[in-house]
Design goal:
Four copies of one chain form a homotetramer.
Chain A (H helix, E strand, L loop, with lengths): L7 H11 L6 H11 L2 H8 L6 H11 L18 E3 L2 E3 L3 E3 L12 H12 L3 E3 L7 H5 L5 E5 L5 H13 L5 E4 L9 H6 L11 H4 L2 H6 L8 H11 L10 H7 L4 E6 L2 H9 L4 E4 L13 H12 L5 E3 L6 H9 L4 E4 L1 H33 L14
Parallel strand pairs in A: 3-10, 4-5, 5-6, 6-7, 7-8, 8-9, 9-10
Antiparallel strand pairs in A: 1-2
Helix pairs in contact in A: 2-16, 5-16, 13-14, 15-16
Chain lengths: 380, 380, 380, 380
């Protein structure tokens, strides 16, 4: 990463015209809005319902200010984290985001290359537009996000493929067993999956292909509709989790937990970790801010459980607050997608660089030499 | 209803240009504003005084976020409710709204046809522009909203007619014994009743007609003024409720209750239910948000009393919150009136379809398989 | 008053184009802005400092919603109040406002005529542009607001003249012993007193005139500067109040009290009443909202002490809230000044009529038949 | 100072066109924006990150209203303070602000002359563009702000020079051991130090000059880069403070403390005082509002410790609130920099005059005759 709090000269170069990248979340979003057509931009930027939860996610960070410590001696800092064996040079990973091909061609490969270059791991979405094996071929540090499709054969295949391709954990998303009510997409009449976007895992599955009359390369719409039909799985329950253990010995995290009781239940069911999330305000509008849920969840599961968090993280201060309040690391979503939209792999790297610098500076100036020193006493 | 959370393909058709309807309350309101002249739009959209209560109604929903449960298994859901024998496929009814003819010709018949088509019951307003018998002839699932006019003979006739026409309950509005201070209407010099709108129940009453020198069809203004004169009834008290029981054996609900003591008193007076409401912020400006009052009222009357709620319900999340906090069902007001303004019967059906879909998705994604599972633990 | 909640037909005439007056505080203010030059408008509309207290005054009303009672039977209502022998048909008086001549010629006579016509008493400002005797000649129901000038002879004369002219009480303003920091006036370079406005009580004082080389009618600036010099009196303390009792046997109220301890001290000092006020946000910017101070003060002085209130009252709901929370009556300031600016005497009467109607409707619809029934249980 | 609350005539002259200066913080800022190029304006006006802490600083003052006392007798007031031997005629000093030369040529001399003229002390920044000896030559009442540079020889020299030049105390800034993430500057590519601005203390240091191949006057960039390289010092800890005592016997205050534990530790380490500050929101974005931290700190250190405060002080009410809540005095930052930008020395004096008048009026009207009478009972 190019910025170093202790190296003013080096930073001066970055400062003095060394960057044409946007600075700050809103600037990245504005640039992405210029770069994209309205429908894909809205797909990324929008949320469910009246977007109240999107707003609540941000507001929760505002309500919890930092209480920096002085004169701790922070010349040396270690921002790195390791979660279930996955290391990152900064306390964030790249969240799973589906259908990234609407933002840029060959999107997942750009993400993978940025991940490899920076060392910040990615969590590949089940709804990506590149086959998980092709992403794995670039060998980024990686986990796999699982949409447990309603079709059991395809779901099992997906898990086994991810395991075989060297993904280090399964992040089972439990808050999106079907798509939510998203007014922007409804207004735009926009369902990108209809032309095959985000369905690469289906199309790379031999069993799926075997069911088709003609392959997706020849006849896209029928294949897309069949894949879409296999997606929803509202029947999934806690009892099903045992099956997942038969398909893989990888660690499993549940993503989308918002309640203490659900968090405890997940651990009782043998899950290896939790991602507190409201899917960036994209699923249940009106739901509790993720940061508020994080506090409740960490309190319930104790200090040793693996708890990640996403939804509303925009600045270095947000990262530091979330970690101080109990997240082992946070996941970045829209921030890096805007980087992708603006500048492809390089844009993602710029976002990562900037956010890491902001986290580093916030830690340096708040008296934290390592991520482990971020604890609730740092937040009012 | 056309949308089904578990059927992504079906929804995809709706999503991909399948609708020209607005999506979301603000979009419906904006379209209605374009469709209507200013005075009738303001009549619908406006409230009393400085419209503080209108704002407070919305804000109260924002203050109470949902706490979704995961992995409950919500493939099968039952959104239906039954309140005092009236069933609805979704936990909402169509609130009584007066003078709908200012929005569209033959408005109440459009509402009735939408009600019949969707199964969502209507509560016909005493201030409708279509005789209650004519609405009943279309046989929608129906209750009758009673403005207990100051003229006792006419009030009694009204109740007896509603009973005879097959309305299943009387919803006595207690918060509008006279019209409130509504600045938008005052500025517009707009009192739609003056040309007979909203007075159909009077004009269809033989006793009323017998008092006129010439029938309304020939001489509208004198008839309208006489009807208006018969409207206010600030003298009405708890003691009068017994008389209502002499006129009908239908269940009676009091609409407009905002306090625990009033709610208990209503039940003690033998009422069959309560509608917590501030009339959408149209009567006492500065009054408590309806959702806050609902919490107080449900706490006071216990779990078995019939309690409905309106005022401020805009989204599926709002419906779910209100029900979780104690409403047996909610009443929709402005949302369906905007549907009527934009598209008549079809517009109302679109509003109902969309809101039902949003409720359904919110329940599906929050771990509620039936309305009965919506309880306060689902709200923070 | 022309509006009657129980008389819809009469109101209908008002509603249906019967008024060209603005409706609602913001509309009156907007019209006044059009009617006045910028400097006098800013003088009226502005406050001290960053105008934070002006905003806080309004916000305090928003934080305390009403809890209306139903079915009380409010056909007959009595809005009248009597405070220390002064009766008003509505629970408000016209607050003392200085320098009204900047808004309209012969302003105080217009106020007096509106007061006489409506029966709503006025409290004449020491800083009026019409001699107190000339206002008294129109015989409105009246109290006198006292600025206890730094010049003791002139202050004593002023009190004795007010007593002789039939003012029923002295309202001693304690929060304006000098003018505050008012940025709008400073920006406009606007000190209306410099050309004699607001100094009529000085100019009508024989002792004052005797000190001048030539009378104000001939040489205005020296007279104005001499009057201004006599104004400030920051030396005034609790101990001085006894002297006031030597000058008059009229009841005395202290206006500008914002603390419980000061309120108790005023009563201990034999004062007959208190006006909780922050001078409409025009003196100490950053000070507590008047409604919040009212609650504290009423709690401290018990139910029997005379407590009035002003600062932030804009709507009928505000009047009702203030009275319910402990004010025996409220004082209106800017609302009637805007009426004066827009329409002279008739404008003031329109403001009074509208506000009384709004109060009346709020009481009628909230279950209060008399001002005495407005108690804290009506506010959440 | 030209304004006197008790002298209305004198003020009238000021009021009536006697000033062309802006009135109020926002007006000064707006005028400064017109006067400056974008980059230097943004450097002054901007903050770290998303500027949340800048907003929080202001909001904290809004949340804590004043509770003015009446009739105390405030004809005579003493606004002066003395802190560790440094007197000011008003309870504020001029905060250390670096790189003022971006705002106006010869900036620090203008500040020094304004300080001398008004008697309000300055705290000279280590990052000033004028050598500390040259500022001292104008003999303003003065302290020296210390950036404890990473280069120990240069840091020691700096302290010894300040001591020798008659600065009365060392204010060691502990929150800026490196520069923070400031998006406005990053967007503008603006690092003013690169062309020597703010580096005068380095350039006046013989040891520093001895290391250069050619002096800054001849070869600016290498000298600037060398100085910048010597700046960061994240290694500084509590243990280093003892060394400072070896370099000087002047009182030492720590500036940038935001926590009770750090405040106590500073006193335990023998420091003579604390400046509660978040550097005007320019360092750790997301950090606690300075006023909130002040309350916590004063509570922790007891009434006798020296505690100053800055960050968010904009109005006279803000000054009074901060002092009432525990600050012995506050430091002004942006307000006087805008004065400098708008009008040089005279602009600074105008800002000081205005703010002193506002403080004086606020005290006069709130019942405080001396700064010592400002205590927490004056704040709600």
């Amino acid at each position: 990463m190019a910025l170093d709090p202790g190296n003013v000269v080096q930073n001066a170069i970055y400062l003095s015209g060394g960057t044409e990248w946007p600075i700050g979340y809103e600037a990245w979003e504005a640039r992405a809005r210029e770069s994209l057509d309205r429908a894909p931009f809205d797909y990324v930027a929008g949320g469910a319902g009246a977007e109240e939860t999107m707003r609540a996610n941000l507001e929760a960070f505002r309500r919890r200010p930092l209480r920096p410590r002085m004169l701790v001696g922070t010349a040396e800092r270690d921002l790195s984290v390791e979660v279930l064996g996955l290391r990152s040079p900064a306390p964030f990973f790249l969240a799973p985001v589906g259908v990234l091909s609407i933002v840029r061609d060959d999107a997942e490969r750009a993400v993978a290359r940025a991940s490899t270059a920076t060392g910040v791991p990615l969590i590949l979405s089940s709804a990506s537009s590149t086959a998980l094996e092709d992403v794995a071929a670039l060998d980024p540090p990686r986990w796999f996000q699982l949409y447990w499709w309603g079709d059991p054969e395809l779901a099992e295949n997906l898990v086994r493929r991810a395991d075989a391709a060297g993904y280090g954990a399964i992040v089972l998303t439990v808050d999106t067993l079907t798509l939510a009510w998203r007014p922007r997409d409804l207004r735009n009449g926009y369902l990108p999956f209809l032309n095959g976007a985000g369905l690469a895992q289906f199309f790379a599955d031999e069993a799926f292909r075997g069911r088709l009359e003609s392959p997706p390369e020849e006849s896209l719409l029928p294949a897309s509709l069949m894949a879409l039909s296999a997606f929803p799985n509202l029947a999934l329950t806690w009892d099903d989790l045992a099956r997942l253990r038969e398909w893989t010995s990888l660690p499993v995290l549940l993503k989308g937990i918002l309640r203490a009781d659900d968090a405890r239940r997940a651990l009782d069911a043998g899950m290896d970790g939790i991602v507190v999330s409201n899917h960036g305000g994209r699923q249940v509008d009106g739901s509790i801010a993720a940061l508020d849920a994080l506090v409740e969840v960490r309190d319930a599961v104790g200090p040793d459980a693996v708890v990640l968090m996403d939804s509303g993280v925009r600045t270095g201060a947000d990262v530091v607050k979330a970690v101080a309040l109990g997240a082992d690391a946070v996941l970045l979503g829209r921030p890096y997608v805007y980087g992708l939209a603006v500048g492809g792999q390089e844009g993602i790297e710029a976002v990562i660089t900037q956010l890491a610098a902001e986290v580093d500076l916030t830690m340096a100036l708040s008296g934290a030499r390592a991520v482990a020193e971020l604890d609730p006493s740092l937040v009012a």
